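#struct-queue
[09:14] JT: dropping the first one here, sequence first, then the structure tokens:
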Amino acid sequence: MSSTNAPKPAAESKWVRIPNGTKVRHRRDAYEGYIDGLTEIVEGPERNPDGKTQYRVNIGGGIRQLVSEEHLNILLDQEDLVMIGKEKEPYRRLMTIHLRASFQNDRFIRRV
């Protein structure tokens, strides 16, 4: 039996999505909010590494900004854990490990 006709597995994506509810700060404009999902966009140059989406960042008052990942810092609490809504410590610790494996250290900032 020949394996030459076997389908090749799709290339594994290296992009790690920031989970909904994660507190973030815009790197340049310094507004804070939380990830409120993804929006697939058709136009515009700034997209997430998947090439087709931007994060919706809820900044309060019913206002959401569309932002690509490169413009976001991830906020940490006093224990250096990712701040994710009302999630409990074990989940936040797991997500901190997961995100730290994918993002450089300068993308994490402690919330004052």
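[09:21] JT: and here's the second one, same format:
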Amino acid sequence: MVHELAVVGRHYILLPKLNHTQMEALAKRLTESGFLVSRSKVILATSARGVIHVDPRGFCWSAFDPSDEILPVIPNVLEIPKEREPLQELMGSYFMFAKSKAKTVVKVSTRVESSTLWKALRASGECGLTPDEHAVVSFLFKKAKGMCRLLTDYPTDGSTLRIYGRRRYYESELGPPEVVSTLRSAGQRAFRNSYVPRNGALTFESLDLSSGEELAHLFQDLGEWCFFQPT
């Protein structure tokens, strides 16, 4: 269910998008384990070993491996019912878009994939795109027309070589079907892989998101990686 990453001296655990009740359960677990817990939006759990940060967007991180503290409570967290959230708010937690006369630009929000960790993830050969994020980005490309610039680990016609660490990548123009078939997610690796851009910006010729019913079904079907249901 969860995925663990070790990047730039930190340990990350990718978690579901957490609702209020789930955050309370994690805070209780950490308190019972002897941590001094404080909460604003993010849980900060402090001990002699260091600090564990739990972000409701769906990840935790620490300078030490937090799995012994976090993983045992995950089965209980997954039994907590999903919360209702307006469709537009739920959609906004994954992406925002703006149309212009020529192009449609979508800014994808991810836990760790499109962040300051992007170069480190590429250099290490890792990927932080979670299954729910993968489903949402794939949906966007199924609704899109036109070529889009992404990073690939294989060359394409006209692609530009990029080196991260000792690994070779390519800035490539891909059509939607190729992105859907190659987009990599955490814990998976295929013969050919593509990655969302570092800034999370996807530029399309056009994008058809006119069906609210299709969007509602998308977010209803994200399973245990998102504990919110659209209203």
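[09:30] RK: nice, looked through the second one.
[09:31] RK: The longest helix spans residues 20-32.
[09:31] JT: good to know. The chain has eight helices and 17 strands.
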